[in-house]
Specification:
Elements lengths: L1 H22 L4 H11 L1 H9 L9 H6 L13 E3 L6 E3 L14 H22 L15 H5 L17 H7 L7
Antiparallel strand pairs: 1-2
Helix pairs in contact: 1-2, 1-3, 2-3, 5-7
Length: 175
Amino acid sequence: MIVGIILIQAVTFAILSGIVASNKNRDPAGWGVIGLLFGLFGFIAVVAVGEGEETQSSSDQNSQPSGEGEFDPDEHEKKCPMCAEYIKLEARRCKHCGHEFSKEKVERQVEEIRESVKGSESASEGEKDERNYKSDEYDTEEILSTHDFNGVGMCEDCDYTREYVKANNYVCPGS
């Protein structure tokens, strides 16, 4: 009778651990075994672990040419000029302090980051526009010092982001 109850409990925790693991992009079979062997402790462990990264299938990986990524604005952040907290690039309102960005400014920031991503890809292929760009003989810190980021992450003079400046060795024309 007791063995039956323990077996039902173990199977229950195995199933629950597998379900929770699956929802967190983890291996449900592996976590199911842990739930089966360790019962409540295995279930608590799977609840405590963070989400796993999503993996692409091999056919998805082969469909994209190597070295060429699509721009995803969700992978980029900007710094709020009021509270200095990082928020999503496309956000129109800071979730920390409520500072609002105009639609035009958000669109411009997204386009600049998109261009910097494209610029870094083309820079690796040797296709730099020579206007206001310096060769690799210049130090990154020296180039960054030509900009006035003022803690915002975007130069007040040329309106380029710190990432764009680094990727393209862009010297601010206002300096």
